[in-house]
Amino acid sequence: MTTATGTAVHADRLVVRTADRVLAGPVTFTARYGTTVGLRGPSGAGKSTLLRALVGLLPPGLSVEGELHVLGRRLDGAGPLSELRARAGLVGQSPVVFPGSVLDNALFGLRHVVRAPRATLRERAVAALEEAGLWAEVRDRLDAPAEQLSVGQRQRLCLARALALDPQLLLLDEPTSALDTGSRDVVETSIAGLRGRRTVLLVSHDAEQVARLCDEVVDLELNG
User: Which end of the chain is more exposed for a tag (fewer CB within 10 A), N or C?
Assistant: First the structure.
């Protein structure tokens, strides 16, 4: 697991906008390595938009104003972001699994990014499944189709897929909003287990969830 000290993310008067409308911000915050920071606000406040701005994944037509530093790099629209995105994992609110087995899904990113023997990649995938709190439930069904997993298990598989790459920054976009209460609680337990060990930015509209899981909270307001 990657460890570091100092600042993972620093945003100063950060704004995301179209040509004529502000979608998120202005917001100023700092996320230190090893902390879990919550981005909280009502629907329409631009939480997910802001999260994607941190790794340059905004759709065409949107621009960023203000100052933004992520993992030691200033994001100013210059230069490719592939190296940054390899160090920052994004997990969305709807769990997306790929055709293939549970293990294939856990290995997906590793196979595309890391050059190592298959046994080494498998070890990393297994470690990620353990960190995501899923290993005990799938250890005897690694070759089963990932589509057979429950929605909550799929979400933890997506989390494991991101963790397998040993990201310096983990971005979680409403990771429990599509889940029932029981599945939400299990996924929250997995996220809580990352606290102090990973740098996490968690987007949520659920104030109680943010209070449970986060060291610090950034509140976003509606614009317009």
Answer: C
At 217, list the tokens.
Answer: 């909270």
Q: What is the pLDDT of residues 38-83, one digit of tens each?
A: 998 878 878 888 888 888 888 888 988 999 999 888 887 655 677 7
- Domains, in order of start, for the chain: 7-219 (3.40.50.300)
Instruction: Name the residue among 8, 13, 28, 18 with its Cα closest to residue 58.
Output: 18
